From TrEMBL:
<keyword id="KW-0328">Glycosyltransferase</keyword>
<feature type="transmembrane region" description="Helical">
    <location>
        <begin position="63"/>
        <end position="84"/>
    </location>
</feature>
<protein>
    <recommendedName>
        <fullName>Alpha-1,3-glucosyltransferase</fullName>
        <ecNumber>2.4.1.-</ecNumber>
    </recommendedName>
</protein>
<dbReference type="GO" id="GO:0042281">
    <property type="term" value="F:dolichyl pyrophosphate Man9GlcNAc2 alpha-1,3-glucosyltransferase activity"/>
</dbReference>
<dbReference type="GO" id="GO:0005789">
    <property type="term" value="C:endoplasmic reticulum membrane"/>
</dbReference>
<feature type="transmembrane region" description="Helical">
    <location>
        <begin position="215"/>
        <end position="233"/>
    </location>
</feature>
<feature type="transmembrane region" description="Helical">
    <location>
        <begin position="300"/>
        <end position="320"/>
    </location>
</feature>
<feature type="transmembrane region" description="Helical">
    <location>
        <begin position="263"/>
        <end position="288"/>
    </location>
</feature>
<feature type="transmembrane region" description="Helical">
    <location>
        <begin position="340"/>
        <end position="363"/>
    </location>
</feature>
<feature type="transmembrane region" description="Helical">
    <location>
        <begin position="375"/>
        <end position="395"/>
    </location>
</feature>
<dbReference type="Pfam" id="PF03155">
    <property type="entry name" value="Alg6_Alg8"/>
</dbReference>
<feature type="transmembrane region" description="Helical">
    <location>
        <begin position="119"/>
        <end position="138"/>
    </location>
</feature>
<keyword id="KW-0812">Transmembrane</keyword>
<comment type="similarity">
    <text>Belongs to the ALG6/ALG8 glucosyltransferase family.</text>
</comment>
<keyword id="KW-0808">Transferase</keyword>
<feature type="transmembrane region" description="Helical">
    <location>
        <begin position="41"/>
        <end position="57"/>
    </location>
</feature>
<feature type="transmembrane region" description="Helical">
    <location>
        <begin position="145"/>
        <end position="165"/>
    </location>
</feature>
Length: 437
């Protein structure tokens, strides 16, 4: 009940406001496209609220991830608000500065509520820094940087004040609990890189804890650098939204002491973009649910796992596949020469998901390999996550325009200019009407 209460107070309103910003804010006089926006909005809202990963973990496993994720989404919201008014008047500058301050405040609160928000910290840092550089760092940019830094420091001081007043020992104990280095690289079977290669390379036996800590840190930083530098040098809101997913996925794959449920830190922001990349994101959500299956079996959530996965898959497939045939906005992969191959791989992937699910539920593993199905699920899911990470990075790097999150002829804010796993939105309003008719 308390989880649902916080959903209603923080998470659901933040989802509503973000979707209102990226789908429904730009109005058009064309009744057909206005109706399309309304349908997109409702289906996106429904799919985000039915995200099986979040539903099962927060309402089955009884976690309060929706609080930190809701605060993170409020931070995203004010970042999206920032570039709406590009006028250089005084009122616009003050409003934009307020948006940056509020974004910094909400994200710092999210980070202090759950340290897993570090998964989203790098894109937010690099994007805000990129905005400061873009505004001329020696003039307006410096002022923005001071306000952002002051907000973060002041919020940290207020939240940590009770521990600081109790002395440095109290602070050290909290830090130790937040970063449990002594517990090892991974504790249980999780579908990240380190756990997936451990059956073949005995990491814990062959490397010291200090070496593994440094290795995971360097790998996480190295694989995050491309998307973050891209965001710093070419800051735009659609790049930022995709970079949030890229960073979270890299942290899940390569960081230290990752838990099975940590995949929701990547799937929640990904689900915000399901209206624009439904094929790849639906696929991602389903594999993420599979990666948590061993944990869900322990918690007695098998029926929840099956029902939420099927509901999510059916709604997404039926709605977006119909849109492919009835509208000019092609929501499925438009790599025409590889379209059939991609779909074939997709169905093979879901077949593998089904087989592993049935084995984990009904087939006892050999006595010599009691964790066989769990390990196979980890390796299978990890392989998918690495591919998803590559695809999401390709999407971010192939965005051509500096900031396409503006009013367009189709009445959409997220006018993505990308040929990978998205729709072709270069048609004029008249062309769209002809094809719709």
């Amino acid at each position: 009940m308390t989880v649902l209460l916080f959903d209603l107070i923080i998470f659901y309103p933040s989802v509503y406001l973000i979707l209102n910003e990226i789908i429904s804010s730009t109005k058009t006089k064309d009744s057909i496209l206005m109706n399309t926006n309304q349908k997109d909005y409702l289906i996106s809202l429904l799919l985000i609220l039915l995200n099986p990963n979040l539903v099962l973990i927060d309402h089955g496993h009884f976690q309060y991830n929706s609080i930190s994720l809701g605060l993170m989404q409020l931070a995203i919201l004010f970042i999206l608000y920032y570039t709406h008014d590009n006028n250089n008047n005084n009122n616009s500058s003050k409003r934009n500065l307020l948006h940056l301050v509020l974004s910094s405040l909400f994200f710092t609160m999210a980070l202090n509520y759950k340290q897993m928000e570090l998964y989203h910290a790098l894109p937010i840092f690099f994007y805000l820094l990129g905005l400061c550089f873009k505004s001329n760092i020696f003039k307006n940019g410096f002022v923005k940087l001071v306000f952002i830094g002051s907000t973060v420091i002041l919020t940290f001081l207020i939240l940590w004040l009770p521990f600081i007043l109790n002395g440095l020992d109290s602070v050290a104990q909290v830090v130790t609990r937040i970063f449990p280095i002594k517990r090892g690289l991974f504790e249980d079977k999780v579908a990240n890189f380190w756990c997936s290669i451990s059956p073949f390379i005995k990491l814990k036996e062959n490397f010291s804890l200090d070496t593994l800590t440094k290795l995971s840190f360097l790998a996480t930083l190295l694989f995050n650098l491309p998307c973050c530098l891209n965001l710093l040098l070419r800051p735009s809101r659609q790049r930022f939204m995709i970079a949030i997913v890229n960073s979270a996925l890299v942290f899940y794959l390569f960081s230290f002491q990752v838990h099975e449920k940590s995949i929701i830190i990547a799937t929640v922001p990904a689900c915000l973009l399901i209206n624009f990349y439904p094929f790849i994101i639906t696929w991602f959500i389903l594999i993420a649910n599979l990666s948590m299956l061993p944990l869900l079996i322990k918690d007695g959530l098998v029926m929840g796992y099956i029902s939420t996965s099927l509901i999510f898959l059916l709604i997404s497939t039926i709605y977006y596949k119909n849109r492919q045939t009835k509208e000019s906005l092609n929501y499925w992969p438009n790599l025409k020469s590889f379209n059939n191959l991609i779909k074939f791989v997709y169905f093979l992937s879901l077949l593998g998901l089904l087989i592993l699910t049935l084995c984990a539920l009904f087939l006892k593993p050999p006595k010599k390999l009691p964790d066989l199905w769990t390990v196979l699920i980890c390796i299978y899911s990890c392989g998918h996550f690495i591919i998803f990470s590559i695809v999401f990075n390709l999407i971010q790097f192939t965005l051509k325009s500096e900031d396409l999150l503006l009013a367009s002829t189709s009445g959409r804010l997220f006018n993505f200019d990308c040929s990978l796993f998205t729709y072709n939105n270069n048609n004029t309003l008249s062309d769209a009407k002809k094809k719709l008719n």
